[in-house]
């Protein structure tokens, strides 16, 4: 009891510190805009590409908010995640569309009012609306995107901002102040809930939402003398808010570890304590490893892309030819690291879908031999630089089975990318197909470095890697094979690592040899929901093998 009370008091102090720091920072922003020299601000190299950085961080931050929801299972956090989707749409409009239309000083109101609605139902989370939203999460995200895009477009198209001019200016100003005050009251209620529950995670949401909200104040009339600073200043505030959101995720993992230790101290039964301790340590170790890898996997490509952009910016000043030569030199590097970020986000989103039960596959009767053979033929040009021989053999000529071709492509490409990654120059990769009455078997074998015996039992678990160090030679987030296992199991199939191989490794995929009885002939094609050609998928899957670029 004493440790519990100490922990709660410690949590309370941290929450108070964070809330007070938020208030101080918000007050500081009002002073800073008056004293910051816009010319010096524009001369900072990072501001040249801050929009793109904010877009990338925003795309990463939204799945991180979903991680908050799935960590806590708190309905409020999902509603707050929808608010960040709205904030992201508003940012794109303000910094990309309004500027091109000559409306950069336009104060967008629709997304803000929509976020007030979301925050209201989040505060009163026992309402029937929140239950409907939680029951249809994927539809809710799509609707929020559509509503914000269309609503903001109509606001700009109809020029609703006319109320801010002439004799209606006072009415418009009163309306803006009223909605801002109401939103502030909602944040205050959220802060009260934070103090009552003593959960630090609330302060992360309160701080970031407050920073995103305070950006609106700078469009008010009292700041008209600083209108030339507002756009650039708000970019910096957006970057800070997204950064706090991501850093908060790391802090919360540490907090959850402390919470686990606190709970363990209350367990009296030694056996139960021992089991619980092992489970918590395994989960926290996996989370810690994952977020360490995630930090490395995100920072590395972003740093490379940003370095290339800086070099392009330097060469731009030397003329078009210098810029063109520099672009040709760094084009592949930029694309590869964009593919690498896209691969990471795709894997995170898919694992989240699988965990939540919303990963729906489109099953058709498809000729599996041609599907695998086409993939093998397509990767051959990519491995020529390593002089790797890719050999395909099959004991069956044609066979249609029930499968989702899009998922099978990802499974085969992932296994092949691992084989290429861990096979030395002049090595060999063998792909062998066979079938019996029950299963179609696909074997992917290489003569590379292989998998250590102690890791063979864990290889399909999440975040497991042969080399866990951040300076490892082979890149990867450690969730590829876990995703492969999940996709194969969604086919009611099996995937495993063949043991006892003398050299290299051999992965075996078994898919049920069944058909859909009512399958139409014109459905016999690859169902690609993302409309990506196979070449682009190979680029994405092979993006962390630098030797191929």
UniProtKB/TrEMBL annotation:
GO terms for molecular function: kinase activity. PROSITE patterns: HIS_KIN. The chain crosses the membrane at residues 14-33, 53-70, 77-96, 108-127, 139-158, 170-192, 199-221, 233-253. It comes from the Bacteria. Keywords: Kinase, Membrane, Phosphoprotein, Transferase, Transmembrane, Transmembrane helix, Two-component regulatory system. Residues 293-515 form the Histidine kinase domain. This is histidine kinase. It comes from Clostridium saudiense. The lineage of its organism: Bacteria, Bacillati, Bacillota, Clostridia, Eubacteriales.
């Amino acid at each position: 009891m004493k440790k519990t009370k100490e922990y709660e008091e410690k949590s309370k102090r941290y929450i108070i510190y964070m809330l007070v720091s938020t208030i101080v920072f918000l007050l500081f922003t009002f002073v800073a805009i008056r004293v910051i020299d816009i010319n010096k601000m524009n001369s900072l190299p990072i501001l040249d590409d801050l929009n793109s950085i904010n877009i990338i961080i925003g795309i990463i931050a939204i799945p991180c908010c979903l991680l908050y929801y799935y960590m806590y299972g708190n309905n409020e956090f999902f509603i707050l995640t929808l608010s960040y989707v709205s904030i992201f749409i508003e940012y794109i409009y303000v910094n990309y569309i309004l500027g091109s239309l000559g409306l950069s000083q336009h104060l967008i109101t629709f997304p803000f009012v929509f976020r007030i609605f979301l925050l209201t139902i989040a505060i009163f989370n026992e309402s029937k609306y929140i239950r409907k939203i939680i029951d249809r999460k994927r539809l809710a995200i799509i609707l929020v995107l559509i509503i914000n895009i269309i609503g903001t477009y109509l606001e700009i198209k109809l020029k609703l901002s006319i109320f801010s001019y002439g004799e209606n200016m006072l009415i418009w100003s009163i309306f803006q102040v009223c909605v801002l005050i109401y939103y502030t009251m909602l944040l205050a209620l959220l802060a009260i809930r934070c103090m009552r529950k003593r959960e630090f995670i609330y302060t992360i949401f309160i701080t970031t939402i407050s920073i995103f909200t305070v950006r609106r104040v700078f469009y008010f009339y009292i700041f008209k003398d600083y209108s030339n600073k507002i756009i650039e200043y708000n970019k910096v505030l957006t970057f800070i808010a997204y950064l706090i959101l991501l850093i908060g995720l790391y802090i919360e993992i540490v907090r959850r570890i402390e919470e686990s230790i606190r709970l363990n101290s209350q367990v009296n039964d030694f056996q139960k304590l021992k089991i619980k301790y092992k489970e918590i340590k395994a989960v926290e170790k996996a989370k810690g490893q994952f977020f360490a890898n995630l930090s490395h996997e995100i920072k590395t490509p972003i740093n490379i892309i940003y370095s290339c952009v800086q070099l392009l910016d330097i060469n731009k000043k030397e003329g078009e030819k210098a810029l063109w030569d520099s672009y040709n030199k760094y084009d592949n590097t930029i694309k590869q690291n964009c593919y690498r970020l896209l691969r990471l986000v795709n894997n995170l989103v898919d694992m989240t879908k699988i965990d939540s039960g919303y990963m729906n596959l489109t099953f058709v009767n498809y000729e599996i031999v041609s599907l695998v053979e086409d993939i093998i033929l397509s990767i051959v040009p990519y491995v020529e630089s390593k002089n790797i021989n890719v050999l395909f053999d099959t004991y069956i000529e044609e066979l249609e089975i029930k499968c989702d071709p899009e998922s099978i492509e990802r499974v085969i490409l992932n296994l092949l990318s691992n084989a290429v990654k861990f096979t030395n120059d002049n090595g060999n990769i063998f792909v062998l197909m066979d079938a019996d009455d029950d299963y179609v078997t696909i074997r992917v074998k290489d003569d590379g470095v292989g998998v250590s015996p102690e890791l063979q039992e864990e290889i399909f678990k999440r975040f497991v890697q042969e080399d866990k160090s951040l300076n490892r030679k082979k890149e990867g987030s450690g969730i590829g094979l876990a995703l492969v296992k999940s996709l194969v199991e969604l086919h009611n199939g099996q995937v495993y690592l063949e043991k006892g191989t003398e050299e290299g490794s051999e992965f075996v995929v078994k898919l049920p040899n069944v058909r859909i009885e009512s399958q139409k002939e014109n459905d016999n094609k690859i169902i690609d929901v993302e409309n990506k050609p196979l070449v682009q998928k190979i680029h994405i899957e092979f993006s962390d093998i630098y030797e191929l670029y």
